[in-house]
Write a structure and sequence with these properties.
about 550 residues, 5-stranded antiparallel sheet, alpha+beta, 5 domains, Beta-Lactamase
Length: about 550
């Protein structure tokens, strides 16, 4: 604002100086001409008065710079002090001559062909003739040539002065505006109302700016926290906006605003979808990027968005989960068919009545065993299905060591039947957990330690506090597990196929249930094993979930 005011004042000063110089020059010329005319009139009257007393005085006059004519009443030039009078044409129609004949005196100014200069003429009628006196005058340009250097000097001085004054005036105007009315009230009281209004508008603008900044910060915070990738393109397919998630997904060459879409991705599906978005279409599809599955949505161009929006959602987990569910369904069907086929087959034999008496008891035992296996399988399927439902769990603070002791008691018969030495190393530890789920995990691990242990083997059951976690550890000296199989043992329906363990009944869901229980408590499970020496399963559960 200061610069604009200063420039405006300087420009006004320049215009004023130029106009002043021009019109002052014209005024000077006008005054000059008036003086010349006045002097010429006086000179002419003196010559006429002398001529009237002495007719021959005209020829005796030696006046420098003046041309004197004697003209009769018919316009004929009788005498000229500078040229032969016989060469002149009739002057009766000359303005000054006509005025002299009619009014006794007349004047005019015009270009003289004889003198080749602008000339002032003044004529006075006498008793028998007219005396005309002419004087050359300088043109307006000639006058300007004379006064131009002086005027230039004056203009320069005045211009420098105007610069100084403009600067002072600008500072005096802008200072109170810059400082505000409440800080500079006494400088220009007449400006107070305007300054007060300016202050109020500034406060409003500050509030609006603060509000807009807050909104922008909120939007940026939301965009940065979004797991979904968001990109907005303008009609020229150039980047308007991109969030961090989209950058991590697409890994663009250039993610700066204004970058072309080809600098962000070369995926044909996305390129085509964005183009269709500018045609007003909503697009939905799936795309694989870096071995991950993403679902993409295209929102058509709109003024609120400022272009077409691309939203990328990671569907890898959901896709994997879908595949696992399909596999689970297939595995469940297969696992259920096996005992059902056996039960159905032996039941058909018994129904036929062609079975020997001693075989009836054997078949009944088989049917009962398979029915028990089937019931166990169904129970485990229901358990793991409930765990995979990802529903909130109910937790309570319990003594983990007491719960472990209870699990040992429940499996005491199995331990005794296999003549296993159970070593309990329990510390007093309290933790907030789901009691039944943790008990189920302990039971499954201890059951496996019994099943896959050797006759007369040993199991070490440890409960301890380790940092902010409770440690649940079960070690055996049984058959062990091959190292290459350790990554698969927590898969559903996976059973380690050892020659020595083929007769061991298992649903293949026990360890999968353990893993789901631990994950539901934000914990982790680890396993170490060596074939022929045994296995160790360790669970870490946060004490305060």
């Amino acid at each position: 604002m200061r610069k604009k005011i200063f420039n405006s004042m300087v420009l006004i000063s320049v215009y004023c100086l130029l106009f002043t110089a021009f019109f002052s020059g014209l005024a000077f010329y006008r005054i000059y001409r008036q003086n010349v005319e006045k002097n010429l009139q006086t000179t002419t009257r003196l010559i006429v008065s002398q001529y009237e007393t002495d007719k021959e005085s005209l020829e005796k006059l030696k006046v420098k710079g003046l041309r004197i004519n004697l003209i009769d009443n018919d316009g004929k030039v009788l005498y000229d002090n500078q040229k032969d009078s016989s060469t002149f044409e009739n002057h009766k129609e000359r303005p000054e001559i006509k005025d002299a004949l009619e009014k006794g005196e007349g004047s005019s100014i015009r270009y003289s062909k004889t003198l080749n200069r602008d000339t002032i003429y003044h004529a006075i009628r006498t008793d028998d003739s007219i005396i005309r006196v002419a004087q050359e005058v300088n043109s307006v340009f000639s006058i300007f040539k004379v006064i131009f250097p002086v005027e230039i000097l004056i203009v320069i001085v005045l211009f420098l002065l105007s610069l100084f004054i403009s600067k002072r005036i600008t500072e005096s105007i802008t200072t109170p505006i810059k400082l505000g009315v409440y800080k500079h009230q006494n400088l220009y009281p007449e400006l107070d109302p305007y300054l007060r209004e300016i202050d109020e508008k500034n406060l409003e603008l500050e509030k609006l700016y603060s509000k807009e900044k807050s909104q922008n910060d909120t939007v940026e915070a939301i965009l940065s926290k979004m797991k979904e990738g968001l990109v907005i393109f303008d009609r020229s397919l150039r980047l308007v906006l991109i969030n961090d998630s989209a950058i991590n997904i697409l890994k663009p060459i250039n993610s700066k605003k204004g970058s072309h879409i080809l600098e962000l991705t070369n995926e044909t599906k996305i390129l085509d979808a964005v183009k269709e978005g500018f045609e007003g279409k909503y697009i939905k599809g799936e795309i694989e990027i870096d071995n991950k599955i993403y679902e993409y949505f295209i929102s058509p161009e709109s003024e609120s968005l400022g272009g077409v929006a691309l939203l990328l959602t990671d569907k890898t987990y959901e896709t994997s989960l879908k595949q696992k569910r399909e596999e689970f369904t297939s595995n469940v069907t297969h696992e259920l068919k096996t005992p059902l086929t056996i039960i159905s087959g032996f039941a058909e034999l018994l129904k036929s009545g062609n079975v020997e008496e001693e075989k009836v008891k054997e078949f009944g035992t088989i049917i009962h065993k398979q029915s028990t296996n089937l019931q166990s399988l169904i129970d485990d399927i229901l358990k793991i299905s409930k765990l995979e439902a990802d529903e909130p769990i109910i937790i309570e603070e319990i003594n983990i060591d007491e719960l472990a002791d209870e699990v040992c008691g429940d499996l005491s018969i199995e331990i005794k039947n296999k003549n296993i030495n159970l070593v309990k190393n329990f510390e007093r530890v309290k933790a907030k957990v789901n009691r039944e789920m943790i008990k189920e995990a302990m039971q499954n691990l201890l059951t496996n330690a019994i099943k896959y242990n050797k006759e007369g083997g040993e199991i070490i059951f440890k409960i301890a506090k380790e940092g902010k976690n409770v440690l649940i550890q079960i070690s055996d000296n049984g058959i062990g597990i091959e190292e290459e199989l350790l990554d698969r043992i927590f898969e559903r329906f996976y059973v380690v196929d050892h020659s020595r363990s083929k007769k061991i009944s298992s649903t293949g869901l026990g360890l999968s249930i353990v893993k789901h229980v631990v994950e539901a408590h934000d914990g982790r499970v680890e396993v170490t094993s060596e074939v022929g020496k045994g296995s160790t399963f360790t669970i870490y559960i946060p004490i305060n979930n």
